[in-house]
Amino acid sequence: MNRRPFHYAYYLLPVLAVLILLLLINGYFEIQRTRAQLFNLLETEGQLLIRGIETNATNLIQRFLDAGRPSPATDLQESLETEPLLGLEDNMIERLVDLGLRLDQEAAKKPGDPEHLSGLIAKTGLTQIEFVAQSREDRSIRPRYRELLKNPFFQKLLTGQSRLFVSRKEPGRDNPFTLTLALARRFGRGFILIRISPEEYRFLGEQIIIQGLIQEFFGKGNLAYLEILDSRKRFLGGAGGGAEAKPAAVEWKKPWPGKDAPLSWIKRADGEFLEMSRAFAPDGRSPGSIRLGLSLKGITPILYQSQKQVLLMTALLLALGIVSFFIIFQIQNRHFSKIKELEEQMRLQEELSAMGQLAAGVAHEIKNPLNAIGLVVQRLQKEFRWGDPQGQQEYERFTGIVRDEISRVNKIIEHFLFVARPFQSEFNAQTLEEILDYVLNLLEETIQGSGIEMEKNWEKDLPPVMGDRSQLTQAFLNLLNNSVEAMPRGGRLKVALKSIPGLKTIELRIEDSGPGIPPENMKKVFAHYFTTKEKGIGLGLAITQKIIQGHKGRLEVRSLPGQGTTVRIRLPMAEKKINA
User: Fold this and answer.
1) Strand 164-168's sheet: what is its strand order?
2) Which letter, b or e, does each residue of 450-468 get, where b requires 16 or more Cβ atoms within 10 Å of its Cβ?
3) Pair 404, 511 in one domain
4) Does residue 333 lie in a domain region?
5) Considering the domain boundaries, does residue 452 fall inside one?
6) In this structure, are 345 and 474 located in the same domain?
7) How far apart (Å, rounded) are the C-alpha atoms in residues 36 and 31?
8) pLDDT at res. 509
9) DSSP bridge partners of 511
10) pLDDT of residue 33
C-alpha cells in the first residue's frame, strides 16, 4: 500500500512567515503614519509663520510706502516723523554708511585699479555709487553737483566740518533720487557718494522691514532657518543659515508631500529639517520666494518613542503569533502522528492479513508431515527398548524432546495463522526458572558448539507469573536464540532472573557480548519482516513482543555497536505461589 509520507504541520511555516511579514509591514506603515502626522504639524506651523510674516510685512510696507508719498504741504522728512517708521530710514542710513566704509576699505587695497573698484560697486546691487576723488578745497566739483552745493550740510562735508552728509527729498525733475548720502573717505582722498533711487529706496525699506520681522519670529517654535528673496532673486532677509550665512551642505534630500507647498525632508551636518518653499508677495507685486526650515529636533524624541512603542507592540504580537503557531504546530503534529500511527496499523493489518492467508496454505502442508512424525516418535517410544537402563533413559529423553518440539511447532503454526489477532492463551501460574531451564537445555549443544560461556543467575524463591507456558517458551527461545546466533565465534551469555517487589514484577535480563545493533536499526527491531539474517523472516521479535504484551509485560532492547545487546523483560507476579 503506497501512501505519501506525512510532513506534519510544516504548512504552518509559510503562514507564520506571512504573519511576520504582515506585522513588519504594519509596523513600518504605522511609523510612517506617525511621522506624517508630526510632519503635518510642522507644516502647519510653517504655514502660520509664513502667513504671519507676510501679513505683517504687507502692513508695514504699505505704511512705509504711504509715508513716502507726503502731501504737497509737507516734505518727506515731516511725513516720516509723523509715523512710527522714522527709525526705519535711520536704519537704512546706517546700513548705507556701513556699506560706504566697507567699500572705502576694500578700494584702498588696490588703489588706482578701476576694474577692482567697478567690481566692488557692482556687488552692492546699487546703481549710483561714486568715488569722488577731488579734495574738499577743489572748487571744480561745483558744476557736477550743483543741487548738492545748495545744501549747507554738504558744504560742511567739503570744508571738513562734517564727515557725513544725508539728504532726503521727494524725487523730482532736478533730483531723481529719494536719498543721497556722502561719506568722507578714511583711506583715500575725496568722498563716496551714494544715491538711492525710489525703486532702490523701496527695496531697502522692504529689506529692513522684513529683516526686522524675521528677527521677531526667529527663535520661536521649531524655526531653524529662513530666507526671503524678491522677484529678482535679491536677498530681502534671512536668519539661521540664509543666503548670507553660508548654510551647511545638504547630505541628502527627500521630497515630502505637502498641503499647500512643496516640502523636503533634508539632512545636514547640523541636523534634520523639514524645508518649505513657496511664493512670497507681501505688497501685491510680482511674487518673490520664501524658504524656511523647521528643525526635527523637537519631534525626534516623540518619533523615537512612537517607533519604540510600535516595534515593541510588533515584537509582542510576533512573539504571541510564534507561540500560538508553535502550540498549533504541536497539536497538529500530534494529530498527524496519530494519523500516521493509524495508517501504520492499517498497513500492518493488511500485511498480517496477507501473511495469514499465505500461512494458511503452508500450514496445511506442514501439519500432516508433523503429525506423521509425531506418530512415529510415539510408536518408537512405546516399541523400541534399549538393552541397558542408562541408554534407555537417554533415548526416552531425546524422543520426548522431539515429541514436545513437534507439538510446539504445531502450536506455533496455529499462532502464526492468527498473528494478526490476539493469541488464544491459557494462563496459569508459571515458574520462569523451569521455562528458562527447558529453553537453555534445548540450546545446550548450540551454545557449547559455538564456544559461548554461559552464566545463569536465578534469585531464590521467585514468585510465579501468570502466563501461557508454550507462548513464554517460544518468546524466551526467540530471544536466547538471537543472542546465540549473534556470537557464532564464542562470547559470553548472561541470563538473570530477579524480583522487583516494589513493582510486583519479575525481571528477566539477557545479555550477550555480540557485535550489537546499529543505531539506524534500533527502531526497526520489532517491525514485521525486518531482519538482518540471511535465512530469517523477521517475525521473531515481533511475535515475542506481542506475546510479552499479551502477558501485560514489558520488553526493552538496548544495544550499542561493539558492546553487545541487553534484553530486559518484566512480567507481573502471580497473586499466589505455586505449591511445591
Assistant:
1) 128-132, 191-196, 179-184, 164-168
2) bebeeeeeeeeebbbbbbb
3) no
4) yes
5) yes
6) no
7) 9
8) 92
9) 494, 566
10) 85
* Domain final position from 370, 389, 421: 421
Q: Are strands 491-500 and 452-458 parallel, antiparallel or unpaired?
A: parallel
| Same-domain pairing of 561 and 437 | yes
What are the E-state strand segments in 396-482?
428-430, 452-458, 465-467
Q: Does residue 224 lie in a domain region?
A: no
Q: What is the pTM of this model?
A: 0.49
Q: 510 and 562, same structural domain?
A: yes
Give a yes or no: residue 192 inside a domain: no
Q: DSSP character for 67?
A: H
* Chain Cα centroid distance, residue 145: 82
- The answer on 452 and 395 residing in a single domain is no
Q: Number of structural domains, the chain?
A: 2
Question: Nine-digit cell at 521?
Answer: 536499526
Instruction: Provide, rounded to the nearest whole percent, the portion of the chain with pLDDT above 90.
Output: 2
Q: Which of 395, 421, 447 lies at the terminal end of a domain, its last residue?
A: 421
Per the structure, the complete domain to which residue 383 belongs is given by 325-421
State how far the Cα of 492 lies from the Cα of 566, in Å rounded to an integer.
12
The answer to whether residues 249 and 268 touch, using CB atoms and an 8 Å cutoff, is: yes
**Mean confidence (pLDDT) of the chain:** 78
Which residues does residue 55 pair with via DSSP β-bridges, in sequence order? none
What's the distance, CA 271 to chain centroid? 29
Under 8 Å between Cβ of 252 and 267: yes
3-state secondary structure of 513: coil
Element (H, E) at 246: none
Residue 450, SS3 per DSSP: coil
**Which CATH number goes with the domain that contains 352?**
1.10.287
Q: How far apart are CA 475 and CA 250, in angstroms?
A: 89
Domain shared by 557 and 433, yes or no: yes
Write out residues in the chain with pLDDT < 70, as ranges.
1-12, 67-86, 133-144, 172-175, 241-248, 283-285, 352-353, 355-357, 359-361, 363-364, 367-368, 411-425, 527-539, 576-580
DSSP string, 100-131: HHHHHHHHTTSTT-HHHHHHHHHHHT-SEEEE
Same domain, 334 and 389: yes
pLDDT at residue 79, as a whole number? 41
DSSP one-letter code for 574: P
The pLDDT tens digits for 518-567 are 877 777 777 655 566 655 555 677 788 888 888 889 888 888 888 888 99
Distance CA 401, CA 419 (A): 26
Same domain, 436 and 502: yes
Residue 273 contacts residue 295 (beta carbons within 8 Å): yes
* Residue 448's CATH number: 3.30.565.10
Q: Report d(CA 131, CA 145) in Å as an integer.
A: 13
